[in-house]
From TrEMBL:
One of its GO terms (molecular function) is oxidoreductase activity, acting on single donors with incorporation of molecular oxygen, incorporation of two atoms of oxygen. Residues 1-20 form the signal peptide. This is Intradiol ring-cleavage dioxygenase. The keyword Signal applies. It comes from Penicillium frequentans.
Length: 343
C-alpha cells in the first residue's frame, strides 16, 4: 500500500530528530501535525489560487437567504479526508474557494486583547482532541490570499466552558484573567493563519463550533497586543464540525464526561446561518493517528470581503478586554451590541 507522503516524512523526521537530540522529549503527535500541515500547505496555496481563477461564484451581499437545505447539502459531503491525502494530490479539489462566507454573530464571549500566539493550548483546562488548524483567507474581490490579517480564535474547552468570561452561563476557572484556548495569529503570504488548539466541546443550546474574528489594519503595540478597537473587523464567523466527527470526539475522554444535552448542527441556530448554497461551514480534516484521541489536522478556506468593516454591526460585540491589569468585563456598551467602547 502506498503511504501518504506526510506519514513517511513524519516517520523519517521523527526518527532522525530523536537521534539528533538524545534524551530530549519529543511530542510525536505534534511533530506529525506539523509535518502534515507542511504537506497540505505546500499543495494549498497554489491549488487554491489555480482554482480561484476558475471560480468567481461569490455572493454580492452579506445577508443571504439561508435555509437548512444549504446545511443539509454540506452535511452530506464527506469532510473526512483521512487516508485520502496523496502527495500533490487532490486535497482541495472539493473545497470551494473565493466564496464569500456569511458574517454571523461573534456571540457573547469575545475578548479583545488576547495573546498573539499560535499554540492556545494551556496546561490547565485544555485536555481534549488536539487540532492543528489552518485557515486560509481569500479576498473575494480579487481572489487573492490576504496576508497581514490578525485572526482571533476562541472556543469552549472539551467540557463546554470558555476562558475569559466569568458570569452566569459561563464561569471560567481562573475567572476574567483566564486565557485558555484563545489567541491571535497573523496570516502569512498565503493568507494562512495556523493554530494549535483542541476540538471544542459543547455547551447548552449550541452545536460544537469555533469562533474566528478577522482584524484588518490593526495596530500591534510594543507589548505585543492589538491596540484596542484599532483596524477594521472584516469578518466574523464560526467553524462547524460534521456530525460524524462530533460524535467520535464526544465519545472520547474527557468530552464524554459532559452531561449537557448535545445540540446537532441541524438544531443549532447559527450553523444554518453560516451555510449558503456555495459556502460549506464544516472543516475538512484528517486523523493524525489510528484513534481520534491522537488528534486531527483541519483546514478551511474562507472568502471574505477585505473592504468591508463590521465594527458597527450588530453581529460584533466585545464581551471583555484583556490588558496589563488582567481581564475585565466590557461594561461600556450593551454586551450584544457593536463597538464596545474603550472601558
Ligand atoms: C473546562 O473549563 C472549566 C471552567 O473553566 C473547568 O472547570 C473544566 O475542568 C475544564 N475542562 C477540562 C477538561 O479541563
Ligand atoms: C475518518 O476516516 C477514517 C479512515 O477511513 C476512519 O478510520 C475514521 O473512523 C473516520 N472518522 C469519522 C469521524 O468519520
Ligand atoms: C487598510 O489600510 C489600507 C491602507 O491604508 C486601506 O487602503 C484599506 O482601505 C484599509 N482597509 C480597511 C478594511 O479599512
Ligand atoms: C464589500 O464591502 C464593500 C464595503 O462595504 C461593499 O461596497 C461591496 O459591495 C462588498 N463586496 C462584496 C463582494 O460583497
Ligand atoms: C462606527 O461608528 C463610529 C461612531 O458612530 C464611527 O465613528 C465610525 O466611523 C463607524 N465605523 C464604520 C466602519 O462604520
Ligand atoms: C499593552 O499596552 C497597552 C497600551 O499601553 C495597554 O493598554 C495594555 O493594557 C497592555 N496589555 C498588556 C497585556 O500588557
Ligand atoms: C488578574 O491579573 C492581574 C494582572 O496580572 C492581577 O493583578 C489580578 O490580581 C488578577 N486577578 C485575579 C482574580 O486573579
Amino acid at each position: 500500500m502506498h503511504l501518504p507522503l506526510y506519514l513517511t516524512a513524519a516517520a523519517t523526521i521523527m526518527a532522525s530528530s530523536i537521534l539528533a537530540h538524545p534524551g530530549e522529549h519529543h511530542d510525536d503527535a505534534l511533530v506529525k501535525r506539523k509535518l502534515n500541515m507542511q504537506e497540505v500547505r505546500a499543495t494549498h496555496g497554489s491549488r487554491a489560487l489555480a482554482k480561484c481563477a476558475r471560480s468567481q461564484a461569490y455572493q454580492t451581499n452579506d445577508h443571504f437567504r439561508r435555509t437548512s437545505d444549504d446545511l443539509d447539502k454540506w452535511a452530506a459531503v464527506e469532510h473526512n479526508k483521512t487516508g485520502k491525502i496523496t502527495p500533490f494530490g487532490n486535497v482541495f479539489d472539493t473545497e470551494t474557494t473565493c466564496i464569500l462566507a456569511p458574517v454571523i454573530t461573534d456571540g457573547p464571549y469575545y475578548v479583545w486583547g488576547e495573546l498573539i500566539r499560535q499554540n492556545v493550548v494551556e496546561e490547565k483546562y485544555c485536555r481534549g482532541v488536539p487540532m492543528y488548524l489552518e485557515i486560509q483567507y481569500i479576498d473575494v474581490n480579487t481572489c487573492q490570499p490576504l496576508p497581514d490579517l490578525y485572526v482571533d480564535i476562541w472556543n469552549a474547552n472539551s467540557t463546554g466552558v470558555y476562558s475569559g468570561i466569568s458570569e452566569s452561563g459561563n464561569y471560567a476557572a481562573g475567572g476574567w484573567n483566564s486565557t485558555y484556548l484563545r489567541g491571535i495569529q497573523p496570516t502569512d503570504n498565503d493568507g494562512v493563519a495556523a493554530f494549535d488548539t483542541i476540538v471544542p466541546g459543547h455547551y447548552s443550546g449550541r452545536a460544537t463550533h469555533t469562533h474566528l474574528l478577522v482584524h484588518t489594519n490593526a495596530t500591534i503595540l510594543a507589548n505585543g497586543t492589538l491596540q484596542i478597537n484599532s483596524g477594521s473587523i472584516t469578518h466574523n464567523g464560526q467553524l462547524f464540525y460534521d456530525e460524524a466527527l462530533r460524535s467520535a470526539v464526544e465519545a472520547s475522554d474527557p468530552y464524554n464526561t459532559n452531561t449537557i444535552e448535545v445540540t446537532s448542527n441541524e438544531e443549532d441556530q447559527w450553523a444554518p446561518e453560516q451555510a449558503t448554497s456555495s459556502y460549506d461551514p464544516f472543516i475538512r480534516y484528517v486523523y493524525l493517528g489510528d484513534d481520534i484521541s491522537d488528534g486531527i489536522f483541519a483546514w478551511k478556506e474562507i472568502g471574505i470581503n477585505s473592504t468591508a468593516d463590521y465594527t458597527n454591526d450588530s453581529d460584533y460585540a466585545i464581551a471583555a478586554y484583556l490588558g496589563a491589569n488582567g481581564g475585565y468585563e466590557n461594561t461600556g456598551a450593551h454586551a450584544f451590541s457593536g463597538g464596545g467602547g474603550s472601558s
